[in-house]
Amino acid sequence: MAEGPIDVKHGVTHFTFGFPPGTEVVDASGKEENIHYPMPSDDPADPLNWSPKWKLLTFSTLMLYVFWVSFPYIGVTSMYAPLIIEFGFSVDSISAFVAWSGFMSGIGNIFWVPVACRFGRRPILLVSILGCTAASIWFGTTSHTYRSFLWSRIVLGFFMSPVECFAPMQIADLFFTADRSKMHAWFFINLLVSTNVGGALSGAFADSKAGWRAYFYFNAAMLAITFVLMVFCLPETSFRRSAALARGVHQSDDDFDEEKTQTATENLSTQHATLQLVGKGAPTVSRRWGLTAGRDSTYNPLDALLRVAKAALIGPVWISIGWFGACKGILVGQNYVAAQIWQAPPYNFSNAAVGMTNIPSIVGTISGCLFWGWLSDWDLARRTRKNGGIREPEMRLWLIIPGVIIGTIGIVIYAVGAQRGWPWPIILIIGNTLNFFGLIAPLICGLSYSIDAYNRLAAEIGLLLAAFGNAWIFGVGYFVNNLLATRGYTTGLMFLMIPVWGMTAITIGYLFFGKSARRLTINHSLLK
């Protein structure tokens, strides 16, 4: 299919025909700040038009939600000793607490995403954080049997489901394409740092006079405070925008004629006037305080599940899904086995010390998110200028390769060092930091790639990402401890890297054939 003439005026992209989803035209000089994609509406209440103040307030509050809801996810991995002593649980049974909460976190979105698309993001997030608060109180206060512990974690997983799915959706609601990698970086900082901070503090609580239950009281208190902030500072971001606005003015080969081209050209002046609202809008009173501003009475949840099934058949969508599962498998897998490694000879760490082994993970995560998030957007702009102002989603994927190389070096140091009893600073400060730093790159770039290519499918991508990624984590939780016990640390941890290397091979293929894969979906029913 030919790619016809392109006109870029006043920061508006004019497609005549032939462009696959995600291909964008920007100023050939690289002045991307003049280009707004997706195209905002002419409504000041459109989140894309909100002022920087409102966007910052909304996003910051959302990140507080992400942090405190994720906080207790792996906390029990630093409490093995007190739970074994007090209740006689096995290592595998305690790992199941994390596995089941992760599994429910994935499949719970099958319920939450359609409901949110029907009733809005804001009410679902408020219900979610209240449910997580109740689950933390349950685990810390009333749990005295294995069944009670397990069910409290299952409930926690169900109510924390939106944390991984809704943040990418709301980033797509609030921000233009050129800014999304940085926003995805901040999302992953809060998602991954919170779990590692939670792991570090849980060990400290377990060794303190307050005891391990106080950790869950603390989390419940912070969740309650965050709920209050969300009531005042998290407006509704769901906004119905037409497909034409989402992509600019677009005509396919079959639709092309002089009259329609003239109409499209005339629309450019209207779109230029619309762009004058960018940065000057604000949420309405109903969006700030109400619970019904995002309601869509025409939305059918069954149709939503059908959309998810259709989205699962789109190849480029699986880049983000695959990378999320592969990277989270190895990063969370290390937490599953932390106590097994560090409380055994020659290290003999206390509960608090096992918790502190998360500090290098925190350093690697923060530095990786800040570095790769900035570099991804910078490299995208550079490649776009070299490509004459044509921006392709595949430009995001090149940085995945150096990230995987760095991550592989880190996990080899960690695995071999643990197997041979190397000094812990080498294993943790060098190996663990490099592993987290490197594998942040495919997390950020993979997610940005899929959403850049299919912006209108952010909800479906988020659901698939959480469901399949956490299903893999569920499996890891059930076999990784036995694998390390029977085959050793090197074999066990290298096994968890196999999906990473497999996704690397797939990504290299998409660097060269990704645009052709996207072209196959140009007339897909989900994009009309």
Task: Give a written overview of the molecule.
Helices cover 69% and strands 2% of the residues. The chain is mainly α and 528 residues long. It folds into 2 domains: 6-42 and 248-280, no CATH class; 47-240 and 297-522, Growth Hormone, Chain: A (Up-down Bundle). The strands form 2 sheets. The protein has a two-stranded antiparallel ribbon. A two-stranded antiparallel sheet has the order 3-4. Strand 1 and strand 2 form a beta hairpin. The chain is globular. Mean pLDDT is 85; it is low at 1-17, 29-34 and 246-266.
Write the layout of secondary structure elements.
Elements: E1 6-9, E2 12-15, E3 24-25, H1 52-70, H2 80-87, H3 91-107, H4 109-119, H5 121-142, H6 146-160, H7 162-174, H8 180-207, H9 212-233, H10 243-247, H11 258-275, H12 285-289, H13 301-311, H14 317-336, H15 338-342, H16 351-356, H17 359-386, E4 390-391, H18 400-420, H19 424-453, H20 458-487, H21 489-519
Antiparallel strand pairs: 1-2, 3-4
Helix pairs in contact: 1-7, 1-8, 1-9, 3-6, 3-20, 4-5, 4-13, 4-20, 5-6, 5-9, 7-8, 7-20, 8-9, 8-17, 8-19, 13-20, 14-19, 14-20, 14-21, 17-19, 18-19, 18-21, 20-21
